[in-house]
Amino acid sequence: MSKPLDYENLNENVKKCQYAVRGELYLRASELQKEGKKIIFTNVGNPHALGQKPLTFPRQVIALCQAPFLLDDPNVGLVFPSDTIARAKHYLSLTSGGLGAYSDSRGVPGIRKEVAEFIERRDGYPSDPELIFLTDGASKGVMQILNATIRGDRDGILVPVPQYPLYSATISLLGGSLIPYYLEETANWGLDIVNLRQSVAQARSQGITVRAMVIINPGNPTGQCLSIANLKEVLQFCYQNNLVLLGDEVYQQNIYQDERPFISARKVLMDMGGPISKELQLVSFHTVSKGYWGECGQRGGYFEMTNISPKTVEEIYKVASISLSPNVPGQIFLGLMVNPPKPGDISYERFVRESKGILESLRKRAQIMTDGFNSCRNVVCNFTEGAMYSFPQIRLPPKAIEAAKKAGKVPDVFYCLKLLEATGISTVPGSGFGQKDGVFHLRTTILPAEEDMPAIMASFKKFNDEFMEQYEDYRGYSRM
Amino acid sequence: MSKPLDYENLNENVKKCQYAVRGELYLRASELQKEGKKIIFTNVGNPHALGQKPLTFPRQVIALCQAPFLLDDPNVGLVFPSDTIARAKHYLSLTSGGLGAYSDSRGVPGIRKEVAEFIERRDGYPSDPELIFLTDGASKGVMQILNATIRGDRDGILVPVPQYPLYSATISLLGGSLIPYYLEETANWGLDIVNLRQSVAQARSQGITVRAMVIINPGNPTGQCLSIANLKEVLQFCYQNNLVLLGDEVYQQNIYQDERPFISARKVLMDMGGPISKELQLVSFHTVSKGYWGECGQRGGYFEMTNISPKTVEEIYKVASISLSPNVPGQIFLGLMVNPPKPGDISYERFVRESKGILESLRKRAQIMTDGFNSCRNVVCNFTEGAMYSFPQIRLPPKAIEAAKKAGKVPDVFYCLKLLEATGISTVPGSGFGQKDGVFHLRTTILPAEEDMPAIMASFKKFNDEFMEQYEDYRGYSRM
């Protein structure tokens, strides 16, 4: 007799969901690593794993918060600058019981206040700490909001394609319907409102109630920064169609061009004024895992709700309470991120030097990578305007597609596996993010160390060009 | 027109779930605190919030892991003992990228190995690190396993009543059915197999497929420690009824008597031998939040799976991957908990002194509290054999029940609110955990400081005895 937790008896939604960022490619890469092969893990935006050093200041503050007895140690000043000591005392005074005590399930009130002040400075509009919840990373927040939203398989969530698979996986897990809208690769992954309208119309014709729309800005995996005009269109569209907008803005510090700085959906909404600014429901997400912080392992994030009623906020609070509280050190990281050292502080110069160094290097790496991909046979790649990823299109020759079929693999999985075996570069196939039929991509982070980048791109080019050589059939391909 | 995240449009399962530990009483207590009233928060097992000091050794190690640049600082030895430096290096070497990098979604492999070694030392049977997942506290692990188990409202989970509301809330959230089985207050909250059989038979007669059984050992809120004989019966029962057993063993370090030491469900299962030991599916949970650690805010926990097939483990791994990784500092706390200082280590004596001090004081507090409750009019209370709670029965006079009805409150909520207003003691009414009809309780932690305990119990007694005086009707009450 089969047992309750045997595969065939599991929750179908669990079985259905897919999460490619740690899927077949990652598992194979982990195996190869165990066998002693050198793997370059570019499957996930995990900067410290690829050698990025943590910023010194926040780590000093957290170390002191973890070891509050050091604050009374006569030698503490030999090891920690005085402003980190003051900051540690500040954050400890905001908690009730230090880092070892559960906080309120929404997060430490004093840190939520600091987040609200940061948002106000950033956007020029006041923000209410009561509408800000701290979370164990942004993903957990997204899951909480989707859980409150999705009532069953007739509830649809508009998700960009290509998308970050957190969305597809969570929607599957919660038994909802994903409604794709396509980003335009030829328009630098811009968002086309006509396409959006078609997606909604088609979903409705199938009896789906479209409830929410997700935007990822800057884009993951696509790297584009949305323009103000585009954001306005999106907000209008959500308003007209009675959708809550989920604004995934975790890459807001990661901008690699000057034409389109990051602008929050909330700021654009407030700038619009009128009824829409008072009525449109918006939830915005941010994190300590990205930017020049890259503190993924600490699991700190927040979401801010706009135009959401107190009764709903209470329900979300109640559900957050079931897991008691987000981790407190991660909350303090978030406090430090929204409230970094100021000019005049002892740690200010070092902090600026370190953070600028990281961002400038990422900008260079984005360029090296895009140029590298565009120098390869049958590869075209938009410039990474923001975020941490490059998403080149790989024009696979028909013979390669046939070979993939024979091997029982999706064509881009086939390509990425070959790449992994040949070079140790662990990417994620485009099919994990969604793409138009017959078009293939891969996602890689731009995170390998700057000095390693030329060798990695050379190794990629060698593999790719040989792969194309092997499978290309000029007659067949020229007809595509 | 109502908007997508307005209350009436939310997921019904979100609205249905209840979490009393942070429910009406907690919210009212928070209000009173804001107004300046001194509140004693005994609603949640949160030792550091009530003044318990963190153990020094693990905090030193974590501080160094957060600030790895200190390891090269010539002054580090002035502030940190050498064994904490060695341990920090050890844990950093187990990670790939330190505390700022996502780990594998199951947790850092080297720490999972340390957990397996701890289980083997504890139980005398080998444990497989591949079947151990690290989590952001035990609650998150329970939610993951229930999510894999529950397929719909016809799937039932056996839960003790009284129970810790994590279970009822999660089952509601996932749309499953809670099947209660009653613990016997007159038998010191023992588990009666006859009662269990009746619960299952009744659920089946209603078309429910009973899939899993939860035990909490030591008990929350009831404080009992299950005997080996009782655990054997439970395991046999699960085997006969094809149930997976979820063993919530987060209080395994919190034992306040010598007759019944903690024994894990896994050890009893392995000791039984034969087919049951190779077939019965068991998932066991543990945490850094309880015991003498009490590191709730760090969110570290694990679950260990026994007799679960690799295909199911893969599915659980996939879902864990969606939120990328548990927080890494919490994982290191767990490593330290299962691998504390050894005799001969510089930090050993201090560690033993601190941890013994905490446990011995908890034992005294358990006794003071039980005796205190039993000295009150119309209050009877079993001794807290383990865990962190006291769960006295409050025999409410009919007039009090009537007064509650008039106030629109459940009787024990009425009593607990009055207690809160009069004394500042913030408890959780028994109705939040489940209790037999017409019987009333409250739950309080045994965590207030030992020196404050006599005053708290005196304040409780004064309130209670006056309350009883006010509402008691001898004729009415003597008939009960």
Could you characterize the architecture of this molecule?
The structure is a homodimer of 480-residue chains. In chain A, 45% of the residues lie in helices and 13% in strands. In chain A, α10 (228-240) links the parallel β6 (209-216) and β7 (244-248). Chain A is α/β, with parallel strands linked by helices and 480 residues long. Chain A has an eight-stranded mixed β-sheet with strand order 2-9-8-7-6-3-4-5, with helices on both faces. The first copy, chain A, has helices at residues 12-16, 24-34, 56-66, 76-79, 82-94, 109-123, 138-149, 166-173, 193-205, 228-240, 265-272, 274-279, 310-322, 328-338, 348-374, 398-406, 411-423, 453-471, 474-478; strands at 40-41, 132-135, 155-161, 177-184, 190-191, 209-216, 244-248, 282-287, 301-306, 379-380, 389-390, 393-394, 425-426, 428-429, 442-445. Chain A starts with 11 loop residues before the first helix and ends with a helix. Chain A is globular. In chain A, α6 (109-123) runs parallel beside α14 (328-338). The longest helix of chain A has 27 residues, at 348-374. The first copy, chain A, has two domains: 7-38 and 360-478, Aspartate Aminotransferase, domain 1, CATH 3.90.1150; 93-338, Type I PLP-dependent aspartate aminotransferase-like (Major domain) (Aspartate Aminotransferase, domain 2). Chain A has 19 helices and 15 strands. The interface between A and B is large, with 102 and 101 residues.
